[in-house]
Structure formats: structure tokens, C-alpha cells
Amino acid sequence: MDQAWSNPHKVESREPSQEDSVTAGPRFSGNCVKTLEGHESSVYCLELLSNGELASGSYDKTIKIWNIEAGTCVKTLQGHTSYIWCLQLLSTGELASGSGDNTIKVWDMNVNTCIKTLRGHTINRGILSLELFPTGELASASEDTKIRIWDLKTGACLKTLHGHTDGVGCLKVLLNGWLASGSWDETIRIWEMKNGICIKTLRGHKDCIYSLQVLNTRELASGSLDNTIKIWEVKSGACVKTLSEHINVIWCLQLLSTGELVSGSYDRTIKIWDVKTGTCVKTLEEHNNAVYGLQMLPNGGLASSSEDRTIKIWN
User: Fold this and answer.
1) Which residues are within 8 A (CB) of 18 and not within 5 positions of it... i.e. 6 or more apart?
2) β-strand pairing of 270-274 with 279-284
3) By CB neighbour count within 10 A (0-12 exposed, 13-18 middle, 19+ buried), where does 39 fall?
4) 3-state SS assignment for residue 83
5) How many CB atoms lie within 10 A of CB 282?
6) pTM for the complete prediction?
7) CB–CB of 294/277 below 8 Å?
8) Of residues 204 and 121, which shows the higher confidence score?
């Protein structure tokens, strides 16, 4: 591992309802069709831009922008003084990046420059996750145990959410506007954002939580250092299913247009899951090191990034 991230400390199913249905997209074959190379170290995160290009953030302190079809890097953004953990496309078409230097930078992609730097988080590993609300505010999570909500126009921190007792590694905005946060304290908290209060705490994982993915209006998936993926019914707070085929930490989760769940792991594999049955239907094994990032593509394909310094494109 590129001296970046190690552990800092160390089911029943139901019949799907109509609200669980996902419009089926193109069938995902799981074939690796392209490998993008250019980063000098681990590639931690991916984000699809509004023009169809792909952004990647790396331990090499750079963000690279890729033309997926050509397989080429078209620009490199530099400015952070530490590794880039997370990326988030903004409603303006700008890109936000979170780094180990404890800052969030906002980039104007038309001129390839940083136009704003947000500061407020503290502690070593910096900004671990970014998530955009439909209202335009940005949420950030950090090893400092806090979640901050930012006004991107002014750069001001609007509120700080307190409750987790260890680093907050992942965020997801739920379809009703609530915020879910996963932490190294082994819990997932659900936040009502008008008042900034935690209304529910989900417990069941036995180690740090590193990834979250919204499945539908009722369910949330989480990936953990305990090597499992759990499916939660948010309203009741109940874990309704546990997926257990990975043999190492689950770093990232994505939802395919087919409704299948994708997971990337430190065990070097990507697994495709039928969430209704809880079965793994496909395992992708082209990466030769940990899989850190996943991004669904407009054509129904998938991009993955790895400690092996590459980005792979799958269809």
C-alpha cells in the first residue's frame, strides 16, 4: 500500500416492492476494454464530469482528466499539497476535490484553475468524502470526526454535524434529502439536515465503514473493514441482508444501471451483486492491487481505479 491508508485502530430478505424497481440499463458484460495509465501512484477516486470526461484523484497529489473514448489524459490539475481522497462534480459543472492537506478545492474546468479553497477540517488524513445536496450545498467528512456543510458561493461553513466518535470516511445524500455518514466508529448515522440532527444510528458492522451507496428510496448499502457489505432499511434501521464474499476491506460501492450493486475491495477484485438475492453474479479480477474507486459511466459501463496506478474501463 502506498503509505496512505491503513486501519487507524486496528439476515433475512424480503419481497421487493414497486418503489425498489430500477429501470434496467444496458447489460453489463464485465469485460475490461481499456486501461488508462498516467498517475504516478495509487488512484483513490473517480468522478464523471458533465462533458463526459472522467476525473481521477491520486496519492501523487494530482487530479487527471481523461477522454474515456480515446483513453488519453487531456489535462492535469495541480494545487493540493497532499494526496486526493475524493472528488465531487458540482451543479455548476465545477469540480470539488478533498485532500490529505485538510482543504477542499473548487476547480473551474473551463480554465483548469482552482477558484476557491475551503478550510475548516483538521487532523492528518484530511477530507475523506464529499457529497453534494440537491440544494447546492456541499458536505464534507474528515478524520476529525466532523461533517461540515458548505455554502459554495461564499465558501462559508454553514453548520458542523457532531456525533461520530471517530473519523468519518463516507457520505451519501439519501433520496429524501437526509444525509448518511459512515464512520470508523463502526456506525452509520442518518442526519435530518434542516436542524442538523442525527435521527438514527445504524449498528451492525464490526469494524470501520469506508463506503456507502443508496440503492433506492428505502435501502442503503455499506462496505466495511469487516469484509462485508450490509443492506439497510433506512426507516427501521434494520440490516436486511449481509453480503460476505470479499476477503478484505470494501473500499467503494456503485450501482449499475441494471440495478446491480458493484463493490471494489482491497482483495483486488470487483464484485457484481444481485441485491434481491444477495448473491455475487460476477467477479472482475484485472487489477493487480487494491481497488479504491468506482464510477458508473453513461453507456452502462464502469470505471475502476486502483493502487496499481491504473484506471480500467469495463463494459
Assistant:
1) none
2) antiparallel
3) buried
4) coil
5) 14
6) 0.90
7) no
8) 204
